[in-house]
Amino acid sequence: MMTKRELRKVYREKRLSLDEGHREQLDSKLFHQLIRLDWSGCNYLHVFISLPKYNEPDTSRFIKWIQNHYPDIKLVLSKTDLLDGSMINYLWDQDTCIAQNQWGIFEPVGGEIIREKLIDSVLVPLLLADKKGNRIGYGKGFYDRFLVNCRDDVRSIGLSYFDLVEQIVDTEEWDFPLKYCVTPDKTYRF
């Protein structure tokens, strides 16, 4: 079994090696898995804007679908506070100005702050997850710190191009497990 660090290295390389055509196929399958979830009770949906340079799953098609099919759902986008490792959540609407931070992550410049307790569902970027819902992200812990401040019933939904691994052996007490992991071929519920 591999450690988080080893798995992060292997799966980052795997994801970066995916060519554009293969990624487009995987993104289409992820999209079809996502739209099968029940979005009817969601008022606030936290999303992320994918980073093409890291070959992250593309969320843009799903975000447009939500806006068209569930116009009452309010989208939330975070800005990272690099001083304390937290995420400040903003309502994402037509007036929101978006800019890239020093890591190239698209974030709101300002706007209406949304408290974590209002958020019903969160799309979580990651590299992979295990069969218990433990996830491997980029290793900075931003989403762990964010999710622990959300309601207990928040739907944390990871997006991964890869199937689940059996077990991530070196999880820590502060690692926040997912409630769902959406892969191209299956949606897992934990």
TrEMBL record:
A Pfam short name: 5-FTHF_cyc-lig
InterPro entries, A to Z: FTHF_cligase, FTHF_cligase-like_sf, NagB/RpiA_transferase-like
Q: Which domain of life is it from?
A: Bacteria
> EC number(s) in its UniProt entry?
6.3.3.2
For this UniProt record, give its keywords in alphabetical order, as a comma-separated list: ATP-binding, Magnesium, Metal-binding, Nucleotide-binding
| Catalytic reactions on record | (6S)-5-formyl-5,6,7,8-tetrahydrofolate + ATP = (6R)-5,10-methenyltetrahydrofolate + ADP + phosphate
- Tell me its family: Belongs to the 5-formyltetrahydrofolate cyclo-ligase family.
Q: Name the NCBIfam families for this protein.
A: MTHFS_bact
Name the record gives this protein: 5-formyltetrahydrofolate cyclo-ligase
Q: Which organism is it from?
A: Sphingobacterium pedocola
